[in-house]
Design goal:
By secondary structure, the protein is of the alpha+beta class. Helix content is 37%, strand content 21%. The relative contact order is 0.15.
């Protein structure tokens, strides 16, 4: 299985500013948030800062599997697509492969 590892930065860059829609901007004046409060809210919304992302290619489905782990504990935080979807795709491939091979 091939693996690529991506390390998340300790302090991610702030999201790009979005221009307000002129139609909705007139109806609702934008609420101003102090910069310090906005930065604190952004940091609170970000899940753990130090995550490890590994990209693997599943041998049965030939799909990329992203696994997000905590580098300190090795605990798997999330997997995309989830394990049950990977197993379902492998099962469907095994069942449908003879049908597709005959038709094609």
């Amino acid at each position: 299985m091939e693996t690529a590892i991506v390390q998340t930065p300790a302090d991610p860059a702030p999201p790009a500013a979005v221009s307000p829609n002129p139609e909705t901007a007139a109806a609702k004046p934008p609420q101003k948030t102090p910069p310090a409060a906005a930065a604190q809210a952004r940091r609170a919304a970000v899940v753990p800062q130090n995550l490890r992302v590994s990209l693997d290619i599943d041998q049965d489905t030939h799909r990329v599997i992203a696994t997000i782990t905590d580098p300190e504990t090795g605990e798997v935080i999330d997997q995309l697509p989830p394990e049950n979807i990977v197993k379902l795709a492998a099962s469907l491939r095994a069942v449908l492969k003879p049908v597709v091979d005959r038709v094609a």
